[in-house]
Fold:
Amino acid sequence: MTTAKAAVQGFLGRLFFRDTTVTHAEDVGRRFRRLVLSGPALRGVEWTPGDKLQIFLPDAGTRTYTPLRWDASTGETELLAYLHGDTPGARWARTVQVGAALQVFGPRGSLVVGGPSPAVVFGDETSLALARANGEPGRTVLEVSEPDETQEALDALGLRGVRLVIRRAEDAHREELVDAVAQALQAHPGAPLVLSGRAAAIQGVRQGLKARGTAAPALKTRAYWAPGKVGMD
Structure:
């Protein structure tokens, strides 16, 4: 990042971002890290499960996370970071320590989950916080590379009844994903469908459900990542 761009982002951060401090940092297995952010600026904030929070990283711009929870009375929120690859966001989440000062923007609307009609959620390792915010067992399907590591994080979050499908080369697992999502929709008639995670997987599930004539009363999508792209919202 250029010096001029960093200066502009720093100025905007002082205008629009909330100041917070990392008050808890905990590894959950080898692939995930649980972070708690606290500060007066987080008090009295309206949050809806599924909202997004953007964290300003001075050397990389903003990175987006889905809070697991938000306590507006104490001014505290909690995040789960997936430690994948050597991206700026992963490097930050892997090394950030208690006491670190952060600027955050939000929460803002992204994917609404939970409430009187919890959704069926499809995603991957980057979607665990969304599934936790949804808060209902038996309504989540995740494509994952290492099921044991993902299950360890699910157990730490108290998430039960999550269907894990192993990610295979050239999307050879696509039909298994479509089967799992279709079964979840059949088990929960009337539930809205939320598709998140990898862009190509979202497209594959949508096409597969359409080909089968399987539909949900409401469909929302949000791609969190795609190969070769960083900082997706």
Residues 3-16 form the longest helix (14 residues). Confidence is low (pLDDT under 50) at residues 1-14.
